[in-house]
Amino acid sequence: MKREKIAIKTPEQVAIMHHGGKILANVMGQLIAAVKPGVTELAIDQLAEKLIRAQGGEPGFKRVEGYTYTICISTNDVVVHGIPGNYAFKPGDIVGIDCGVYYKGFHTDMSESTIVPDEGFIPAESSVKFLNLGKQALDEAIKVATIGNHIGDISKTIQDIVQKKGGYSIVRSLIGHGVGRELHEAPEVPGYLVGKIENTPLLREGMTIAVEVIYNMGGAEVVLDHDGWTIRSEDASLAGLFERTIAITKQGTMLLT
């Protein structure tokens, strides 16, 4: 794991990120609700930009060099970084939305996955179990993100739930990260443990990190699409994505998104 300098945020900076995170969480809730049969990925992207700007934020992902969209969208076998296109959702599709807000100099980052609903449609039990377990892994990982614990405690928690309990695969080439003035900062926050927990970065007051659960129903290997952005599961199995930006505080874990 890289040992880059970790930016510690002041309480005032955390407060700015908290406000930006509220914008993002509000937007994400509306985006997930808008995922319905016949709606296109591009329509969700356009809605995201409209909602973010209406609340005084800026689409964080548009600040990434070469990327011109507000969200990344992961439909079915897309793991991360999917470019929104003209695909129209069908009942039962698994759709992951990854979105960022830039507000007063600071980024927040968030992902959520859902099953496309329809009246009278009953989603596959395997899909429901798959997403429920990913959300559980995220929730439990956030609980251990406290002062005095290590990044490795987060990593081990995600790995234990996704792999040991669920029997799914953690995508090892994609990880969580610090977030703040830059969208991606130190430290790296893997969804799996390498080595000993005590050898991973210590969690300290003022750290702001994006905890991510990135996993596949099948194997862990991924491939890059011809567009240079979209990453899919190599075996075309379904993928799941959950992410929250959090701050480490004396009062405990602060959920920013």
CATH class: Alpha Beta
The helix count comes to 4
Kindly report the average pLDDT value: 97
**What is the CATH topology?**
Creatine Amidinohydrolase
Poorly predicted runs: none
Shape: globular
How many beta-strand elements? 13
- Portion of residues in beta strands equals 25-35%
The count of domains is: 1
> Helical amount among residues, as a percent range?
25-40%
Could you give the order of the helices and strands?
A: HHEEEEEHHEEEEEEEE
Main sheet record:
6 strands, antiparallel
Protein model, in words:
The chain has one domain (11-248): Creatinase/methionine aminopeptidase superfamily (Creatine Amidinohydrolase), CATH 3.90.230.10. The protein has four helices and 13 strands. The chain has helices spanning 11-34, 41-54, 125-143, 151-165; strands at residues 58-59, 71-75, 78-80, 94-103, 106-115, 169-170, 176-178, 185-189, 208-216, 222-224, 231-233, 239-249, 252-255. The two termini are 26 Å apart. The mean pLDDT is 97.
Features:
257 residues; 6-stranded antiparallel β-sheet; 28% helix; Creatine Amidinohydrolase
Can you describe this structure in just a few lines?
With 257 residues, the chain is of the alpha+beta class. Helix content is 28%, strand content 27%. The longest helix is centred in the N-terminal third of the chain and has 24 residues, at 11-34.
